[in-house]
Queue: 3 jobs
Job 1
Amino acid sequence: MAEEFNTEGMLDIYLFENQQLLEQLQEIVLEQKDADCFDEDSINEIFRTMHTIKGSSGIMMFDNITAVSHKLEDVFYYLRESNPDNVPHVKLVEHVLEVEDFISNELEKIRNGDTPDGDSTKIIAKLDKFLDEIKKGPAEKDSDSIPENVHEEPKQFYIAPVATSASRFFKIYITFFPETEMANVHAYKTVYALKEIAEDLLYSPENIISDETSSDIILQEGFRLLLQAQSTEEEIRELIGVGYDIKQVDIYECKAEEFLRGFDFVEINEAQIDLDSTVEDIESRKQEAQQEEGEEAENEKKPEKKPESKPIAPGDFVIKSREPGKQKKLARDKAKEKTSFISVSVSKMDQLMELIGELVISESVVLQNPDLKVPGLNLNNFNKAAVQMSKISTDLQNVIMSMRMVPLTNTFQKMNRIVFDVSRKLGKDIELRMIGEQTEVDKNIIEHISDPLMHLVRNSVDHGIESAEERIDSGKPEKGKVILSARTEAGKVWISVEDDGKGLDREKILAKARSQGLLDENKPEEAYTDKEVYQLITLPGFSTNEQVTEYSGRGVGMDVVVQNIQSIGGTLDIESTPGVGSIMSLKIPLTLAIIDGIVMETGTSSFVMETGVIKQFVRVREDMMIHEPNGDEYVMIRGECYPVIRLGDWYGLKNYQTDVENGIMIILEVEDKKICLFVDKLVGEQEIVVKPIPSYIKKVKGLSGCTQLGDGSIALILDPGGLID
Amino acid sequence: MDVTSEQDKLVETTEDIKNGKDVQKGKYMTFKSGNEYYGLEIQYVIEIIQLQAITVIPETDDYIKGIINLRGKVIPVIDVRLRFKQESFEYNDRTCIIVINVKSTVVGLIVESIAEVVEIKEENILPPPKIGRTEKVQNKYVYGIGKVGDSVKLLLDPDKLLNDVELSVIEQVNELNDEEE
């Protein structure tokens, strides 16, 4: 029966939330990785994050994640409570990142539908050791108590706590008739009803949805809830309702401290609760409860007396940590986010994007309708309305584009992590500076640049920055520097990775290229410009580092980078000064979906070319043409010689212009290569929505997609890269 | 008696609809190409549209005429006559495009003219003759011959119609490329 509740939805939310938590965690950790220790806020934040992950993983029954997060929580609990000053900070950072990696991995497995089966014992052992180490100073005897307590701590369902002074705390005890079937479902119904008013809600047994045996437990022991709400007892009773299956509902009001102690307290009382008690009994129950509070207060005093020497029992602090005051801030932040953001599935966004694309096209179908071209029509009003409509559709287009824009912050943050990892492994001290990480880029593009960027950063750290000794020898500061910057310019995003390392070594590159047979034999090595030499490193199978290291040097780096960048219409530019450093710049389009294009015709076909690659339109005369005997053609324009591609020839079209004086030459530039494309005529400029050519039709060289023109017909989009190859 | 059998029939159909299956079974969309009538199981057919402007894609097989814009969706169209290695024909106002969906590939078939939708019972479908003067090329797309009264319809296997063995290899390559992108 448990399956009736859609645990899949819960799983999605679990994955989504924990992913976000991990990202936040990483951000916090990396922000302070260079400090001497975490500040108090961060420790609390990490502690809370781990606590939340532990709680939700417990509910979802991912035991290894629970165990690992629990252990890290222990560590941070200790840090928080005892403020030890002998913590090796870098080691701690590594441990946190390790845990984060582990959980990320497990989440990935869950996302792919596998069981999270990663071995948590190793990490736990490491953390234990670490904890022992830092504890050695103040309290040596603690170490034993930790492992024992690992699984005793109760798992608790946790619903965004909002503590206010008007809050009241209740203990609710529900008993069902023994013959009730699916008591867990009934219990869940109650929880669901109470969620409406609950500021905080705990219940036991906690896994009522996923565990069918909980039904028996509920029948035998009753269903216990701890509720924090601003409602009165009557309101709660009303919400729970009295169904035919509920035998008895007992509600006791209690104090905050008691509430925070959780179920431990309730368990003590269990024997005292009489299943047959009636509503009238509640008054006397309350008195009892107050008595218990007294006892409670005494119990509380004990740990306060000697907090230092008290062994850390994870079972306690979870509840202690949930002081209403502390949660306040967190809860408020959450509420704020909820009102200003909603998460929408990407497929819906894509659909909206597509529809707006359609709208833009059908707009031009209407506005350029041939029916309007009848002479003598009075179109004043029509034109006014048309202008208004164009305005709205442009706005609409901008809004949807901006919705798809995501800041590069996360991507850059990942690089921070890489620099940290790689530099530590290589024993280099490197600082990463990030400039303009708020720059926004279309989501599709972000997905494509993450990997190339990672390669570039690794390259800089591994190959670019010298070892500390070398740096000192050459009079540079010992600490290396990598600058990651992003900016938008002319409809493109420029992302550059700059390092102050040794720069690219021209001779080494040439030597390597020679040995790999990558050089043009007819060209003397001196004739290669620096730029050309640097471009050599982007060829497949090239890597100058003598030693293949863990992070780079397999010779697959740069060519993959270039391929990935090219696939989204971007370019890679390399600048370098020997001894001073190098700059790798990526130039990528802001968006892939809508581009500016020039529409042209050849024969009866229409083609579109992205505006960015077009340098010039030129009319040429026959005497400017140079014909080679093998059929190749060149054209001399203002002293420069360009190879010519006749589009009609290229695709074997019919009825196209053969006389160069009747058609037009388009000079294209892609990655420093220039060619002339000969077409019949230009039609105009248009914003085009790129659509793929149906996969049923096999790939045609030089075509990258198709688009709908203003008149509803389809034009093919030319891929300049394909033409130049 | 009549009433009950009527009712039975009604119950049958509604149940079929409920089960979401096979109400369309046994129904064939027939069209004329050359001198023959062909039939396509109706479950593959999405719609029939008038011939419209086709954008030619260079460097493709000759039977792939190009792509059309079907209300914003770009779909490829193929000429059935050329597909059967028959002579090409002049397109006129009777020429239609049957839009079919085979394993979520949407393709338009250019046919000379649409005939009708007929119901062919399974017992009236014969396997195609193995010997005889039927051309081999044509044979591989035809999985059965349906008898309707006196006439026969050649029943087409749409999967084979769209995908040659060698073509599917190309498709796979394409798909690979697409994934890479």
Job 2
Amino acid sequence: MGSVNATVAPFTTSNVILWFRTFWAIAASGFRRYSTYRQAAVAGIVTNTVFGFLRCYVLLAVAGAAGSAAGYDRRQLATFVWVGQGLLTVVQLWGWTELADRIRTGDVVGDLLRPVHPVTAYLATDTGRAGYAVVVRLLPPVLVAPFFFELYLPSRWPTVPLFVGSVAAAVVLCFACRYLVNATAYWLADVRGPLVLWTLGSGVLCGLYFPLRFLPEWVYQPLWIVTPFPSLLQTPLDVLVERDPTPVQAALVAVQVCWAALLLATCRLVQRRAERRLVVQGG
Amino acid sequence: MADRPGGTLVAYRALLGAQARSQAAYRASFVVDLVGNVGATVFDVLTVLVLFGVTRELGGFTLRETMVVVGLSAFAFATADLLVGNIERIPRYVRTGLLDAVLLRPLGALPQLLLMDLPLRKVSRALFGLAVWVTAVTAAGIDWTPARALLVVVAPAAGVVFFGSVFVATATVSFFWIESGELANSLTYGGRDFTSYPVTVYGGWFRALFAYGLGFAFVSYHPALALLGRADPLGLPSWVSWAAPGVAVVAAALAAAAWRFGIRHYRSTGS
């Protein structure tokens, strides 16, 4: 009985340009792959728009006659909801079990045999997917909303680059979170437990159900630093509606970047540990 | 089978029993599912409490009044989701050809599909919804009359029938458009979110469409008005608030018609 060690091949070259070219190629294929589901995208846009209406009306009712709630005015709340509905699919909070499925079926061996680190390869695919989602899932609700609600437009120029950076960091961070949740399949026979915890926790704590600043300050401030969840959705949205002055915006994005780097490093660590014990049955 | 009505019942019971056994076989996974399912509804209710931490009233309704609406919506949706909700997986049945197999058996297609996939893990959610409903009704300070006592029982049942009809009707779309995917969610889960708040919260044509065009106002808003003895701030006469059960019956009839139309025009995807 022979056995093959399928661990990640070390980089044979440290050529950064080559690395970027590979990353770009995988990302482009990710973009193409997700762009094939056109009908599903249309259905998804309709659903996001309906939920945009629902959540927007509720938050505007919370603002009520006073016209503001927890420091957001009506226009900021409307923007928070509508852009949030679009970003939800850009970061893809839910519904990604590809890695866990591949681990369960053993297909993950194919990923390990490739000359690209699995974390890098999956991240590249996810970046392509996110790029497609920006065009097809973020823009439509944001373009529909102004016909029905007054939206908030940023008034300071640094907000725009900060928002773009914040969305990019959120995409990487959310990918890392999902990768870690999926990677529990290396150790568990059934990943439903971690998946359920992730689905429940992320939805509430990322600011999708309500802006986290509706909570008391002593609840949301530690949450923001100690957990990655607010960095997934609340931060880009708060940056966009200029809830805070520019230095605070920059600090929030910095927290995001730290979380993304930390969790990405954890992904690589977990992947290495998993490869030591992974046994794939069959031939 | 057709000449022995008892035989049909035995067959359905066998389907249900097999489901229950297979789902409970992996205890830990089943417990995780129970917890996960109740969690989603718990957070929906918590969201309402958080919103009331920021404001005193929502669309002219206080927390206690809103909780009656929330409880009714939570229980009705969770119970309908438990009994009928899995019909939303019908695109998969169409794609894999399972629907063809089901149609060949000498039993009704809809009951078979429902029993084959009855998600027992959703029991926890329905029970939590019931707890919220009972708590809300007790805390709301309702001026009890025989009619209201009857409505407290009939309204949740009507809500279940209504949401069940929405599930079946939206699933019918999949017969014609397999890739419709999330589209049904905008009416099922969207309906749940819509009915979780008084309809005065919403505005314009959106309210008109969801509340009266699709009838969602009759799930929780109008029964709550009748129980609380409040006049409709939107100006509809008070008898409308008692019309919920009638609306549910109409919805069920429409959903049944849609389902029959769908089944009759269903063409297998082939191989």
Job 3
Amino acid sequence: MSGSHDVIVVGAGPAGGEAALAASGAGLRVALIDEGPAPGGQVWRAPRTAQAQAAAARDPDGRQGGALRKRLRDASVTLLAGAEVWDAEPGFVVQCLAATGNHALQAPRLILATGAMERVLPFPGWTTPGVFGLAAATAIMKSEKTLPGKEIVIAGQGPLLIAVAVKALELGLRPRAIVDRAGPRDWLRAAPAFAAMPSMLARGARWMARLKAAGVPILRQSAVVSAGGCSALDGVTVRHLPSGRETEIAADTLYIGNGLTPADELHRLLGAAQTRDRLRGGCRTEVDADQRTSVPGLYAAGDGAGVHGALPSVFQGQIAGLAAARDHGALDADAFAARSRPARRRLARALRFADASCRLMTFPEDDLAEMPPDCVVCRCEDVRRSDIEAAMASGAADMNQLKHFTRLGMGPCQGRMCGLNAAGLLAPEGDLRFTPRAPVRPVSMDRLIGEFDYSDIPVPKPAPL
Amino acid sequence: MTRTDYDLAVIGGGIQGASVALFAAREGMRVVLFDKGALARQASGTNAGTLTMQMTRAALIPYALKAHEMWVNAPQWLGHDVGVVACDGLSLAFTEAEEEILSQRAEARSAAGAPIRLVSSREAARIEPGVNPGIRMASHCSVDGYANAYLTGLAYRRALVEAGVELREYTPVSGLGSSGRGYDIRTEGGGVTARQVVLAGGVWIEPMLKWLGIDLPIKTLINQLAVTERAAPVMRTVLGIASGLLSLKQYPHGTVVIGGGWQGEGDRDSGTHRATAASAVGNARLAVHAIPSLRRSRIVRIWTGFEAETADALPAVGPVPGHPGAWVIGSVHSGYTSAPYMARCLTQAILGRPPEMPLFPIDRLLPGHGSH
């Protein structure tokens, strides 16, 4: 599998899958890498169980995912599934770990379509067993058609609240409550943009009707401010944000999410220029109209470059794949313009809809300041807000100092969960990030090094005595 | 004649510069310390923290032994904890050729005063039960250990503030000139004057010395390291190999740091450096070969940092020739280990006292030296 290609695509979701198909359709030798067992990414995640397969056949996302997987099977794209990319070197060499060991893939062009990660505004108890991400809930349902929990509360912000609640109903789980940071006015403001996508608007209306019929309470302008229970969740405290009134809800499972942020570790590792952009999940990678980043030969599409949602990702992916083919010399200017024109037209329309969703999902940065002192920020290393304040009092002014003074970000997730939250506490108006370093996922030593003889290790010449 | 702003300006807030600033301030000097970033964020904060004799050049052993003692007593003289653990150290030989290197090096270091002796594979396994039973022999040193390098900045920052050193972090120095009674230190926001100046810029002492017209070539090494996630205990010593290309130890919180000077890629002028996958795999294989149970761990981070080296790989510590009151400190091989003691000796010279042990003046490295 190691070897040379015309273009490598990292991520086989809507953006990466389409990028690979577009580049391959233009004649490029394409390698497509994904950490999942099959293409589809998060939103078009491949069903694993029989129940999930049956459900996917009835669901628009499920059908689109199935179609993408079929097109990829039929295309001459070299697919490496179940492979975790852990490093990318300029030029480009992409290192990834699969069940068969470490693979080094080479290509002069690289398309990053790495998707998004969920953000959670920390609150006391957010690390209690029984608290899950909202996006994690959709991942479990799409692959397994099941949801952990009996008494569930769904909280956070954005359209995922409704989607998860409806899917829970389909599983016979009636949510105890939906806790939505937004108010009716925020949703009304989004309505005209949603109306630009009549099919989506109709689906949303159907879902709301079902929640109403099932009698699921929706608590507007409200947020979960604490979760109780030691070894397992036993309830949540919900605050009505305008009045400050608090209510307790018994629950064994909380699904909560405060929007998405680009999974941009590889973009940053390769030095692509970025801009702070709250609407796009905190920070977006700068791309031109053809999805080229500031690094020659490097393209970025989909939520990994800036959160837009699945639909724009499809078209960005197509454009990126065609641009790679154009830059490779496989398409002339006219062919590139003709092939990319439909995607550009549909992208413009999809973006209006996407921006309305993104606004509802924008992370509530200002509320970081409300976090109580004993609230855990870095769950890998158990670093609390008070530890961060103490480090700041000792002179920590940047993320690396904060890390060194507290161990924040030094655990298995390397700050992917806590980095932006800690940066928001350290310098609310700043643009602070951890220094990007490989591996972008923890790597199994066993898989990384494989079997070897001592004599094969290229030990450098001895240091001077 | 105007009064200067400071008695001493130190340029470079790594462990060498910060130690000189600290000791000088405690002797009553008015000291200002500049760094282009935060304290101890280059080599001093990103190295493996090993406090070992078995990777130290023989000529530096006497200094390293003194420094090791200082590290162990850091809470007393520094006043703050840098997580120092003193433990046994083993250097391993896996092949006949390595046995030979190991024997030679153990002998040379032992002659220089390090308590190093050769031990059988059986005895090595008794000292370090986690070690690969296939080793041929090892050298054991009872003076070994490690610090938590990433705590260096925090600990020194507190100590410097308490000692009254004026800290100017994130303040790059753009140039240096002689003035009536000392030196003008130029920065973007203006500048200061100081009677004496110390250049302690790590790999950047080469461009710093150019400010004074001195041409001292400094080689830039780009050392690469890796760390595992927290794990149950797998080892209790500091481990190396005969060639010096491995350093391995497990911190009390469970992470294992893998170092040894495998090279990444980078460039001093742009200040950027990055790890390479090839070095990561090679270094990890060596580590697993030494401690086989490390195979079950996961690496969470790989990083790089600069190390400075002179042409003869011996330190640049002493006066800047032709510039009274200007000093340089850097390029100390195993510099993290030896830093506090090197800094103590240089501070004695700055104060006009004879240093406890000889410095390493740079005259020997300058063009024209020894040619007449």
